[in-house]
Amino acid sequence: MAELRFDTKKIKAGYSPLDNNLAISPPIYQTAAYDFKSTEHAQNLFTYKEAGYLYTRVGNPTVNYFAERVKALDGAKNVVAVGSGMAAISYTLLNLAVGGGTILASPYVYGGTIDAFDRLFPEFGVNIKLTDAILDPEKLDAEITDDVKAIYVESISNPNAYLLDIDAISEVAHKHGVPVVVDNTLATPYLYRPLEHGADIVVYSATKALTGHGNLIAGLILDNGDMSLYTKERYPQFYKPIVMLGGKSPADIFPDNFFIFRAILVYLNLLGAALSPQDAYLGIIGLETLSERVSKQSKNAAKIAAYLESSPAVEWVRHPSLASYKFKELADKHLTNGGGGVLSFGIKGTPEQEAEFLNNIKLFHYHVNLGDARSLIVDSPNTTHSELTEDEFKLAEIPRNLIRISAGLEDADDLIEDLEQAFKAAGLL
C-alpha cells in the first residue's frame, strides 16, 4: 500500500486491532506492571535484548500507541511520550547538555520555559543563552562555539505567534555539528513539520492543540533518527558504558535510537514524569480530529485578528494571516494549512481598563492553556510570562499591554461580539 496521507494516519497509525482482540478503539492498559514469562524473559527485558513491557513508568501499550501515532504524523523515526510538555523540554535539553554546556535559545518562547532556563538548568551546570541571533544566520553562526550543545526554538512562538526560519537555523547549526530542537506545540504537525525543515528533535506539550480538549497533561519527544550528529567528542554521554546495559553504552544498544533511548533510560526512568494510560487514550481520541480542529481554529483566529486590527481599542495585532505580520513571507510559504489558533494584540488603554476588559469577557475562558476546543484569553505578561525579567520582556518583544487569544471552535462572530462588548464595558469604545 502507498504511504498513507495525514488524515488517514491520524486515525490509523501506530495501532492494529489485530494485536488487541480486534478492538477498534485502543484499549487502556491500566496496569502498573507486566508479568515476566520466565527469569530469562525478565533479564532480556532489563538488558534490552528483547522488546516488551515491564513497568508502566517506562513503557505502556496505550502510551506507545499514542506516541507512535504522533510519530507518524510528524514523519519522525523515534519517539517517547512523557508526563508533560515541560518534562519533554527538560529531558531533551538535559540529555544533550548533561555535564555542562550551553544551549542557544530563542527569546520567543513560553514563559515557563524561560523560567526553567533561568532557574532549573543552571543547577545542572547547563547555561541557557537567550539570543535573537536565531533571526540572523550570520549572527547565529558567530555564536555557536565548541561549548554549544543545541539550538532551541519554538516553530510558532508563544505568545507572539512568530514563525521562525527553521531551515536557515538548521543549516547553520549543522555546519557546527549541533542539533536543532523545535517546540512545535502551537503549530502541531498539521500546520508545520519541523523535521522536514532540517530540525533534529521535536518536542510537544500535547496538552494543547495536538489533543485539543484541555483534559490531559502530556508531552512528547521525537527525533529524525540521524545519530551521526552526536559525536563522541561533543556528546560523550551517549557512548559511556552503563552497568545495567551489561557494560555497553546507549549507542552500542540502539545505534539508530540512542538519543531517545538514553532519555528513557536516565530521565524518564529516574525522574519519573510518566504519561498515564488514561491520558494517552484521551490523547489518541483528540488526535482523530486534529485537522478539523486546527483548521477551524486558524480560520477563527484570522477573522478575530482582522476585527482587532480594525478596532480603535487595539494598538497592534500579531497573527500569520495579517499583511502586517512580521514574518509574512515565511508564513505564506510554509503555513499553507493556516496560521494557527493563537494570536496576540495590544490593548489601547490603562492597566485598569485592561483588567475591566478581561473581567467582562463572557464567552472566552480566562486561563493559561492553549489550543483548546474552547476559546481562551489571558494577559500573558501578568500570567504565563510573569517570570520574565524586564530585559527578557524586551528581548522577547512582549509589551506590557499584550493580550493572548487562543481561538476555539465557536462561531467567530459570537467571539468578536464578545470582545466588542468587553471593550465597551472597559470604556475603550
Automatic annotation (TrEMBL):
The UniProt GO MF terms for this protein read: cysteine synthase activity; homocysteine desulfhydrase activity; methionine gamma-lyase activity; O-acetylhomoserine aminocarboxypropyltransferase activity; pyridoxal phosphate binding
Under InterPro entries, the record lists: Cys/Met-Metab_PyrdxlP-dep_enz, OAc-hSer/O-AcSer_sulfhydrylase, PyrdxlP-dep_Trfase, PyrdxlP-dep_Trfase_major, PyrdxlP-dep_Trfase_small
Q: Does the keyword Ribonucleoprotein apply?
A: no
> Record keywords: Transferase included?
yes
Query: Could you say which cofactors this protein requires?
Result: pyridoxal 5'-phosphate
Please give the catalytic activity noted in the UniProt record.
L-methionine + H2O = methanethiol + 2-oxobutanoate + NH4(+); L-homocysteine + H2O = 2-oxobutanoate + hydrogen sulfide + NH4(+) + H(+)
Q: Name one GO biological process term.
A: L-homocysteine biosynthetic process
Q: Which domain of life is it from?
A: Bacteria
Q: Looking at the Swiss-Prot or TrEMBL record, what is one Pfam family this protein matches?
A: Cys_Met_Meta_PP
Listed EC numbers:
4.4.1.2
- PTM N6-(pyridoxal phosphate)lysine: at which residues? 208
Designated name of the protein: homocysteine desulfhydrase
Species this chain originates from: Ruminococcus albus SY3
